[in-house]
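Entry 14. Ran structure prediction on the chain below.
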Amino acid sequence: MPDSKAGPAAKQEPQGASRGLSPEMQADLRQIYLQGVRADLSALDALLEDLSQQRRAWLEIVEGLRRVCHNVKGQGSSFGYPLMTGIGGSLHDLLRQAPDRPSPAVLRVVEAHVTCLHRVIADEIDGEPGPQGRRLIERLRALTGRVVSKDPPALS
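Output, structure tokens:
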């Protein structure tokens, strides 16, 4: 995880959608983002639960996960959470290359990504990730590379 929790009180230059807005508007946008991303994380959890209960087909779940991840990776940096963009991007890449059938290794890597996304939001880890955050993203990407190289890609 990143070296320290920047948190809302930290002095940072606004990023993305918040740039140029008053501090009050920035705070409002941040709250709207956090509500939306928490809903996205709940959707990811529900899809993983569907998978564990075998309520839906694997490829249908992968497509649902990809749709949600697209939002997570696209919005993170705009609202001051570049670590969400990095983790979400890594997960999105994994899901684009997901095999036709789930493997235990792929499932563990998907779950690791989702756990990290939850942690970033729960701990309000905003701002630039720092060395530990960058290492985390590198490790997740390395895990992704390992599991997709063992399984032939089904989705491109």
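The radius of gyration is 16 Å. Will compare against last week's run tomorrow.
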